[in-house]
Amino acid sequence: MESSGEMVVFPLLIENSYRACTIPYRFPSDNPHKPTPVELQWINLFANSIPSFKKRAESDDTVSDAPAKAEKFAQRYAEILEDFKKDPQSHGGPPDAILLCRIRELILKEVGFRDIFKKVKDEENAKAITLFKDVVQLNDAIEDESKRVENLVRGIFAGNIFDLGSAQLAELFSKDGMSFLASCQNIVPRPWVIDDLDTFISKWAKRAWKKAVIFVDNSGADIVLGILPFARELLRRGTQVVLAANDLPSINDITYHELVEIISKLKDENGQLMGVDTQNLLIANSGNDLPVIDLSSVSQELAYLASDADLVVMEGMGRGIETNLYAQFKCDSLKIGMVKHQEVAQFLGGRLYDCVFKFNEVSSG
Q1: Is 101 helix (H, G, I), strand (E, B) or coil?
Q2: Are 317 and 303 in contact (CB under 8 A)?
Q3: Which of 244, 296, 216, 360 is nearest to 13 (CA)?
Q4: Do residues 140 and 199 touch, judged by C-beta distance below 8 A?
Q5: What domains does the chain contain, in order, with CATH numbers?
Q6: What InterPro entries does this protein map onto (predicted)?
């Protein structure tokens, strides 16, 4: 479904006390004209990402004079970040993850870039599609249901490593890429910083959810080898699955149009995903255009499709941890993602590349 028209509140969100940002950047007692230590920490984090964004922009061969425009982007964004350090109220502040992401996207568009990660997304999607069959067969071969679910979850974490919004991972990725199966083996050992996996598995064994809405994250291994095998397992159990993807490009996040294309490539001539019918698989345009999401503003189409769901999954660091970790829903919810910023690890009291698996069950009584 296409996104159009006015944005609305996500219907399953419990709105009272909802804040899209998980980490408190400032408190009412803080001086409004002086940046807090947390604001400075995050301004610096975004500043450190400028070189990798500039490098991607320079090599965008769909844009004329890309190197000059990339330089213009880098200078303007750096200037705005410096302004925030002098006065957090400037540029619509005080700054938080959503505002810092939004300004970065606006500047890229203003100087003439639409999707600087398009080439790497296409390459990673193509690579992941060739591995999809093997990953699904490995999962299907696990007869013990609890172990199979845990393996699917590990696959989501392994896929979520492909994140070019993290300066360290972007650097690592550009050097030698990453092996999905090696990543599965190298996930930090449990218990994770937030670890409700055992509760989730026991709930999974008791009953199937009738409808799940999954807010998806990155292209490549994340969506193809992490989320889609998990979604396929839900479909196999009779759950209707709605995959909610971004309207517009942002970092290497999958967009609605890209996701439609990927699924059409993975389906066989009978419309099946490795033997599982996809009639109950729906793709929704969330209306979002950032790597983070404010659930008080989603597309009407997504709101309509999600209204009767009984499971909401927020996947990825941006949607599930940096925003919405503490969001409350009227149904069961799962926040799942890997911690890829030291600042987030510090806030949670965990390790860099630790895992968050936060499951909240809503009693049906």
Answers
A1: helix
A2: no
A3: 296
A4: no
A5: 118-156+189-360 (3.40.50.10880)
A6: ARMT-1-like_metal-bd_sf (IPR036075), ARMT1-like_metal-bd (IPR002791), At2g17340 (IPR016949), At2g17340_3_helix_bundle (IPR035073), Type_II_PanK (IPR004567)
- What are 363's two structure tokens? 């009693």
209-267: pLDDT as tens digits: 999 999 999 999 899 999 999 999 999 999 999 999 999 999 999 999 999 999 999 99
Determine the residue type at 190. Answer: R
Residues 330, 182: Cα–Cα separation, whole Å: 37
Give per-residue pLDDT as tens, 277-309: 999 999 999 999 999 999 999 999 999 999 999
**Pairing between β-strand 281-285 and β-strand 311-315 as defined by DSSP bridges:** unpaired
Give the H/E segment covering residue 72.
helix 66-86
Question: How far, in Å, CA of 117 to CA of 248, rounded?
Answer: 12
pTM for this predicted structure: 0.94
Say how far apart CA 134 and CA 139 lie, in whole Å: 9
How many residues does this entry show for the chain?
365
- DSSP 8-class letter at 277: E
User: DSSP string of 302-364?
Assistant: HHHHHTT-SEEEEESIIIIIIBTTT--BSSEEEEEEE--SHHHHHHHT--TT-EEEEEE----
